[in-house]
Amino acid sequence: MVEHLATLRRVVHVVNLDPAAERFEYPVLADVRELIQVEDVMEDDELALGPNGALVFCMEHLVGNPSWLQEALGETQEDYLLFDCPGQIELYTHLPVMSQLIGWLQNWDFRICVVFLLDSQFMVESFKFLSGVLAALSAMVSLEVPQVNVMTKMDLLSPAAQKEVERFLDPDLYSLMEDSAGAWRSRKFQDLTRAIYELVDDYGLVRFIPLNREQPDTIQEVVQLVDSTLQIGDEEEFREPQEISDEANLEEFLSSQEN
User: Fold this and answer.
1) How far apart, in whole angstroms, are the C-alpha atoms of residue 256 and residue 242?
2) Residues near 56 by beta carbon (within 8 Å), at least 6 away in sequence
3) Pair 98, 189 in one domain
4) How many CB atoms neighbour CB 215 within 10 A?
5) The pLDDT of residue 201
6) Which residues touch 238 (CB under 8 Å, ≥6 apart)?
7) pTM score
8) Are residues 195 and 92 in the same domain?
9) CATH of the domain at 42
10) Does residue 163 contact residue 140 with C-beta atoms inside 8 Å?
């Protein structure tokens, strides 16, 4: 994504917010590991935290130090920032950490779009797809900002698997529901699954777009959707429509619009 944005002559910066990250193949503008690292937290005998607990501790520490992040970001007005965040789903669905972080960024006049990434390799069964949909929906409700849902790593799938996964990009959920009917173990489970499918399908709550790193057009599609969500390029001031009282004023009105 960074390379693709560079070809578009975008001024883009990457911000690492994953305190458990090991290395990057590109420069980062700010790195949370300069503030706190998961390994250091896990080595603290008093805290006695495992990997997940240490990660949550690090993120809570980050949110408790907004001045560090603001100083690390510096002056980046009009620039395109990519925040590389941890993958633990509970940070986005159960804990207030990420929503608090987004709140800080909004207070600093950032326009925010969440890009929710779902691994396509796990989307070969309807139940797993439904689980991914619910995770995306939970994040959307919790974070309360515009969200783009992307199905990643399409390039790692075989042609047959790609064809199977394509069913889930703009799915007929009723057909998927019937395909999984044989796995229903009870009537209650069947009714609950059916209700969830119907809710998601009727309201069109979640849709995914594919991302194949070997196909630049799929990367560009993600960029365009994020641009549209952030209203990038919509700098022209909106003009309220004018009322035309009679035909005599029509020509004058059209002339003013052309100018």
Assistant:
1) 11
2) 88, 90, 91, 95, 97
3) no
4) 13
5) 75
6) none
7) 0.81
8) no
9) 3.40.50.300
10) no
Same domain, 78 and 154: no
pLDDT digits (tens, 9 = 90+) for 12-29: 999 999 999 988 888 899
Name the residue range of residue 48's domain: 1-110
Phi then psi for residue 212, to 5 deg, are -120, 110
Q: Which two tokens stand for residue 74?
A: 């510096």
Domains: count for the chain = 2
Is residue 149 a contact partner of residue 206, using CB atoms and an 8 Å limit?
A: yes
Which of 62, 79, 110 lies at the terminal end of a domain, its last residue? Answer: 110
**Predicted local confidence at residue 128, as pLDDT:** 81
CA distances from 131 to 89, 99, 197, 200 (A): 12, 22, 11, 12
In which residue ranges of the chain is pLDDT below 70? 171-185, 203, 233-259
Contact 82, 12 (CB under 8 A): yes
Quick check: helix, strand or coil at residue 252?
helix
Tell me the C-alpha distance between 247 and 253, whole Å.
10
The pLDDT value given to residue 32: 96
